[in-house]
Amino acid sequence: MSNFEPKIIAFVCNWCTYAGADLAGTSRIKYAPNVRIVRFPCTGRIDFMLLLKALQTGADGIIVSGCHPADCHYTAGNYHARRRWIIFKSLLDFVGFDTGRITFSWVSAAEGAKWAQIVNETVDKIRDLGPYTDYSNLNKLGVGTITEVLNARTA
Amino acid sequence: MQELHNKIKSILENGSASLFIAYQKSREGKITPTFITKPEQSQKAYFGDDCKQNLAVYIHKQEVKNFGKVGIFANIYTLKSLLQIYAENQIRDDYLKVVTINPNGAIVEFANFMEIENYVNENKPAPNPEDMERVEKLSNLSREERWDYWLNELSTCIKCYACRAACPMCYCTKCTVDCNQPQWISTPSHSLGNIEWHIMRAMHLAGRCVECNECARVCPMDIPLNLLTVKLNDTANIEFGQQAGLKGELDYALSTFKVDDKENFIR
Amino acid sequence: MIKIAYFPGCSLEGSSKEYNESLLAVSKEFEIQLEEVHDWNCCGATAAHNLNKVLSISLPARTLALAEKQGFSEILVPCAACYSRLLTAYNELNKDAALLEKVKEILEIDFSAKVKPFTVIDFIQKHIQPKLKEKVKKPLNAKIACYYGCLLVRPPKLVEVERYEDPLMMESIVKELGATPLDWAFKTECCGAGLSVSRTSTVGKLCSKILDDALSRGATMFAVACPMCQSNLDMRRRNANVFLNEKADAPVLFITQLIGLALGLDKKELGLQRHFVPFNLEIFDKPIPKETLGKSKKVEEV
Amino acid sequence: MNYKTLNTNKLPEFFEKIKKTGKTVLAPRKKGNKTFFATFDSFDQINFDYVQTALSPKSVLFPRVEELFTYKNDDGTYSVKEPELKNEVVVFGMRPCDGVALDYLCDFFLNENPDKLLQDRKNNTTFISLACKSFDNDCFCTSVGSSPAETLGSDLCFTDMGNGSYYVEVVTDKGQKLVDAFPDLFADTKEINKVEQLAQVPVRFELKNLVPKIPTVFETNIWLDQSLACIGCGACAYVCPTCSCFDVQDECNPKAGTRLRCWDSCAFGQFTLHASGHNPREVQSNRWRNRVMHKFNYSVQNMNTISCVGCGRCIRVCPAGMSIIEHLISVEEA
Amino acid sequence: MSRIGVFICHCGENIGGTVDCEKVAETAAKYPGVAYSVDYKYMCSDPGQNMIKDAIKEHKLTGVVVAACSPRMHEPTFRKAVSEAGINPFLCEMANLREHCSWVHLKDDSTTEKAEELVKVLVEKVKRNQPLEPIKVPVTKTALVLGGGIAGIQAALDIANSGHKVIMIEKSPSIGGHMSQLSETFPTLDCSQCILTPRMVEVAQHPNITLYTYAELVGLDGFIGNFQASIKLKAKSIDHDICNGCGDCIAKCPIKKIPDEFNAGLGTRTAVYVPFPQAVPNKPVIDRENCTYFTRDGKCGLCAKVCTKGAIDYSQKDEIITIDVGAVVVATGFDIKGTDFFPEYGYGRYKDVITGLQFERLASASGPTLGEIKRPSDGKVPQNIVFIACAGSRDPAKGIEYCSKICCMYTAKHAMLYKHKVHQGKASVFYMDIRAGGKMYEEFVRRAIEEDDVNYIRGRVSRIYEKNGKLIVKGVDTLLDAYPVEIEADMVVLATAGIANEGSEELAQSLHISYDQHNFFAEAHPKLKPVETNTAGIMLAGACQSPKDIPDSVSQASGAAVKVAALFSKDELTRDPLIAYVNRCGPPTYSTCVGCFLCVSVCPYLAIEKEQIKDRNGNLIKEVAKINPGLCQGCGTCVALCRSKSIDIYGYSHSQVFAEVMALFNERSLENV
After folding, report:
1. Binary contact (D39, A150; C-beta < 8 A)
2. Mean pLDDT across the stretch E204-208?
3. Which domain holds residue B76?
4. Mutation for testing the B interface, residue in A65, A86, A118, A147 having most B CBs under 10 Å
5. Mutation target vs A (from D33, D36, D251; most A CBs, 10 A cutoff)
6. Which residues of E touch C295 (CB under 8 A)?
7. Do C213 and E466 touch (CB under 8 A)?
8. Which of C70, E175, E285, E652 suits C226 as a labelling partner, its CA being 20 to 30 A distant?
């Protein structure tokens, strides 16, 4: 696993974290290149299914980040998102997903350094955890035969 | 039972409903729903502790709606469901006549949803201790053990969608799983598609599930699906103090917020 | 006969025996049976809550739990200090499920903390006042300063008393007894309560201010509903008089004693002989002064 | 047809020997109150106390999801790969009615445009039925022209004779091959009358009256009356051993993809839903009628046989307690 | 089939120095759907932009990805360029290779690989972009100003002077608000009415301003540029067109003991009244709650008899009018807590414990004492006066955690005014802190202390009680080692907390604007949008947002006016079309929305409405959600909430974000295949 480089996808809001990442850039703060940012208008827009889709497509870790409470460009999207993540995380934990691979954070447009730190810490953590294959290869399990599935259940 | 028959009879006779949905018991002892349209059929109705099916699910059915005004015999979970879907704008007060039997064995006919709300709050069923225990037990396992448990259980799902069909809260015109532009949920019943489906189902029911446990009862593969929604209801209750099926006004954990909602994982 | 759970606490068995006697005597007149909670214990006042929160809740909680087990849903607590402790426990246990679990474990009693404590004033308002007027045989000719002290009205969020800085509950009761309530400023000032034994001079100084304000406005006597208020204004009168130019001799009666007198009960039955500041029935024969804002008697500067 | 006997206590040995040849053996195993076909590690995991398995052996030939092919896009060059099915399987313990169903299913998939995958799976699988000694209220094979004595569709048919031995009917060459592979286990015997060893399933309705009757009630209210309780799940179709509807799904990204075949059900609201939004079977009763018509009329027209074998699974699984037996009786009486 | 053009910018060395731009362009060229791919030194330069325009034409591109700097920097530039080449500007997206890649990573293969993936993600997105048109909304160039206090007056005049129509409504019979009640103003001590009344008159006479006094807003529908306001004009019972304001009716009115609102209850007025001599309009109204003609069935009628003009009209009715407006300025002001809020200060039963506003009236030359400081109980001039600052404010136990902001200054002013009028008198102020931030404010307070000898005591007052005709004020001096202080005062002035008006919650709800836990109206952003509300087109001015002094109120009012004027500067409002919408389709479904309306409460802008779909005969088919494009700001929270995916959003649609996510990292799913 020595040369494993984690693949991280970041779901960020346009107004705070995307701008915070821009600031990290204009400040030339260096951080790990493993992260790919996908831009949303607001954390309130981020569908929980997208997190599952990211894991399916091969992300080893996820960052979800938006405006600090009270700073939402749309006044309340992040509060709704916070509730969504509280529920969703509870479910993922209960089902046994490795939620340690998902970093939730508030990064404001002024927190370029925090953004870099969040990315670096997430990358380091995921690098230690190794690739996440629990989930992404499940589209093979149960195809074509009933035996492996029923074997699993009766075990 | 006679009292129930008389009540149904009078409801059908006086025109407050042209269809009455109740339970019946077959000769072999099987409990099934029955759809009474004629007053003289009223004695088909049966009620006992063995009447588990959540009849509220029929309220969404087009062919039931076609009857116009409908009467329904409701156990406590059906009442909770009716209240919840009323809050979600799916029923009109004047199109539904609801009857139940209270714990003392008396017939109660509700004039409106306010009365149902009061009744449900007075007769709130306690959480099923068995389910709570199973949730607790699962929560105490290691993450890997939980994953193995659910992967095994959910891998057996054949995607017959009985869980969806039996649930009164699953009334969407078009379910997410039927959206294919984009295909949010893999429809094949491989393990990935199954887990996606059940996670989405649980998320959509979080804070809306009335814990009637129909989803688990109807599952041909005996997957304890209800544990997922029971768990999320518990989370919604603990974190946001919100419970489903107790209010005629919308009270949904995920469409409201408090500025000081607490969490311990957002950095 | 109405049955009500009753928690006398230590004061009513000792220094304020007459409170107990008069309360029982009056209750009897109104066909109310006060049933002492079996095996009650110390409420923990006044020191426990400064030292150990769980202990300070567990002590009164035990009495609440016993009352619940004995089939009651509320409990009459005449002593203001006891009341404060029991009410605090009631509130804490009802808002903190984890604490309730812990206390249940400590007490080894399974209970739900649903027994709510209430005061003698609440008791009178609910069970006695509605029938009081018709039962009064000897209207009291007196100008009465109703003194509440601290714990009957504080903390406001807990006790749910409406005008906690200027309560009027006892005033409305004494009005029904035929007496004139006094409008005065020191109803809820501190009497020095807990220092009664250790710092008598401080108690004296504080009480002197209370006495002075009431007497200078024409009060002829005091009504109280707290054992500490009574004993400080009564037993420590000597210490108070040191600070007053003119010695005060107005008696300090429990509200229950006043009701008893108006009902025509015997002085002794009401324990009136037990007071330090003597009480004489002749007091009701004197004319009461008109509304005055009488001259202030010199209060030594603090 | 050849007839053999197998000492019942040789059954474990039979399975072990099959496994040693590299084949997979599926047998009934219990989970909760239900019994499913599954692989097993030891013989005592097999459950013999069941009327019917929850799922039919249909999934062995026609899995609930299977790969039709995969493709790759290598910078504009596309390559397609079809799956190769080599795994040989022995299924033990299906009921005779399931055999009838497999016969129908193979007829359906292999007759005109043979489905290669199903053909391969069929060639690779040997089905051993275990004739019924018990039945329940939901069994009605005798009403649809079959019985616990039926051997159609099985490769081998086992009957527990109650004397410590199985009476083995060798129905097909595939069955013969399997028996021949282990000559020391099987002894020759003559044809035996096994009927008294078997469950006596009562006849519930007269098929010969029913089949011509069904199209005559097409336009009546009977379907609505019967199906008001239907909540529109797909459970009946998924447990049905003859239901063959499927849906084709592509799972792909810009670089690669898989085409999958998945079970589908006529009970779903999206069944026959047109892209325009119109659905000729608009409501549940239309779909229910289609289901019953399919089993007892359309398949007679198209394949010269009804496509219900009386296994009763749809009745046992229905969340709303619907019973095809009762409904057919009510059609008969209409 | 998409034909996407990819344009990789080196940004000089900024990107090119770290990322192998040529390689990125080569990789992108092989990507499905990419018809053209190129790299260039500076894409934003003229030649760079021309490259894009030429490529669009030459390669018939259907979408463009410019991989350069942050879209927050140059997105408008490239969208403009693209539209000049004839394709919709919303078919252009930017991949952020500079801020998010080259500037934050080292020169390395992994950095180039990241750049390739960022391009790939945007290619997948842009394949699914739809051509969009900016939303154009016509603007009704009339502003509604709610409230005729100084904030409302300032806003109305500023808007009117910039050439736009203004409707001002005021619920009392005269404009002027609290400022008209004040005696002198800090820190200059100039007379409040002297500076205010000219403005009031200007409002009344301004050709662009229509003034409705004795009027209330009952409802507001619509959205920015297109509101419909329903206004209730309360019956004045006097025809103001006829009335000449002679005042005979007032002189004759027999009902004279009504507590006078203008004098904060310190004086009385008649039932037919003008609130104060300088009122605008200076014509009376009949207070029907107190007039015997109305309370006792037609008795009296004296005013009608004395009115020579015949202006009295008892039969007038409340009238509701509807006006189209394009913007609203809410300037409804504030209220203060009464003395009855303070148990420890006697529940309001001591006549000589008064509020700061009452003191203003006592000090005012037009007040009930004509400016002499006399105490209400017996009219004596108080020789010893105590002011208590922070009465209620900054006191969480009283439920008012905030600072009321104006009290420190007006308390200093009061003490000063008292000392100026009662030279030998003794004035003490109990305070927590002195907050005198503001031009000349600190100097003003120092003057009170140093020149006017006001005794400032840092500490709070625990109790006031009356004894021997004196008010005993018991407090503590925390600067003197927490020593108890007792003052025998003749009068006590409480600087009671400034609070939201009664009914402000209902008003906020009918305006669809947010309010805080104290019912003050909420600004859209505490720092950057202090005068806007989160409902576009509705602005805030003055103390309805939080307690404010006059200069702050006036500044905010002018700020609100500029916002309105800017909005009115164009005939049409152009808005970003990146908003949400609920799907619609043909029968029999009409929309996949099932009408659960869970989305309604999730929308911060109350933009989601119920819409009934009916058949040709008007029978209801179904009720579904509908998003008002005028109100939606495009946060997309409803989109993620909707279970059936019936809501989607332009610019961040389901298929766009899904494709973006699924385009990443799919090597691993490839292996599985």
Report:
1. yes
2. 96
3. 2-122
4. A86
5. D36
6. 468
7. no
8. C70
Yes or no: say if C86 and C6 are a contact pair by the CB < 8 Å rule: no
Contact E467 C293 (CB under 8 A): yes
- What is the 3-class SS of E341-381, one letter each residue? HCHHHCCCCCCCEEEHHHHHHHHCCCCCCCCCCCCCCCCCC
Q: For residues B152 and A155, is the Cβ–Cβ distance under 8 A?
A: yes
Roughly what angle, to the nearest 10 degrees, separates helices A77-95 and B129-140?
80
CATH class of E142-234+318-333+503-568: alpha beta
- Model confidence pLDDT, tens digit, residues E302-357: 999 999 999 999 999 999 999 999 999 999 999 999 999 998 998 899 999 999 99
Is pLDDT at E669 greater than 70 in this prediction? Answer: no
Residue with tokens 């039962």: C135
- Please check whether the two domains, E142-234+318-333+503-568 and E580-649, share a CATH topology: no
Assigned CATH for E4-127: 3.40.50
Instruction: State which CATH number among 3.40.50.300, 3.20.20.70, 3.30.530.20, 3.40.50.11810 fits the domain covering C139-285.
Output: 3.40.50.11810
Beta-carbon contacts below 8 Å between A and B: 137
pLDDT confidence band for B1 (50 / 70 / 90): confident
Residue C160 to residue C173: CA distance in whole angstroms: 19
Q: How far is CA E268 from the centre of its chain?
A: 35
Query: Based on the structure, what is the number of domains in chain B?
Result: 2
Q: What's the Cα-to-Cα distance from B256 to each of B89, B251, E636, rounded to whole Å? A: 17, 8, 15
Of residues E165 and D78, more confidently modeled: E165
Which of D33, D64, D138, D228 to substitute to test the interface with B, most B CBs within 10 Å?
D228
Q: D140-158: per-residue pLDDT in tens? A: 999 999 999 999 999 999 9
Same domain, yes or no: B113 and B148: no
CA atoms within 13 A on the CB side of E40: 16
Mean pLDDT of B204-220: 94
Task: Indicate if the pLDDT at residue C295 is higher than 90.
Answer: no
Q: Determine the CATH number of domain E337-499.
A: 3.50.50.60
Tell me the mean pLDDT in the region E108-119: 94
- Flag whether pLDDT at A17 surpasses 80: yes
Query: At which of B122, B146, B176 does a domain end?
Result: B122
In terms of domains, do B99 and B22 share one? Answer: yes
Which among A84, A95, A103 has CB closest to B254? A84
Fold of E580-649: Alpha-Beta Plaits (3.30.70)
Average pLDDT over residues D248-265: 89
B265 lies in some domain: no
D9/chain E closest Cα distance in angstroms: 44
Q: For chain A, give every domain's residue range.
A: 8-154
Nearest to residue D159, comparing CAs of D183, D181, D189? Answer: D189
Q: Which own/partner contact pairs does C132-138 have at CB distance under 8 Å and 24+ positions apart? A: C132/C173, C132/C176, C132/C177, C132/C259, C133/C176, C135/C29, C135/C30, C135/C263, C136/C176, C136/C177, C136/C178, C136/C262, C136/C263, C137/C262, C137/C263, C137/C264, C138/C261, C138/C262, C138/C263, C138/C264, C138/C284
Q: Which CATH number is correct for A8-154, 3.40.50, 3.10.50, 3.40.30, 3.30.360?
A: 3.40.50
| Reported pTM | 0.71
The torsion of the CA quartet E596, E599, E600, E604, rounded to 10 degrees, works out to: 170
Residues B174 and B251 in one domain: yes
- The CATH label, of 3.20.19.10, 1.10.10.10, 1.20.1050.140, 1.10.357.10, for the domain at C2-118 is 1.20.1050.140
Residues B199 and B249 occupy one common structural domain: yes
For E203, phi then psi, to 5°, come to -60, -50
- Which of B89, B122, B155 represents a domain boundary (last residue)? B122
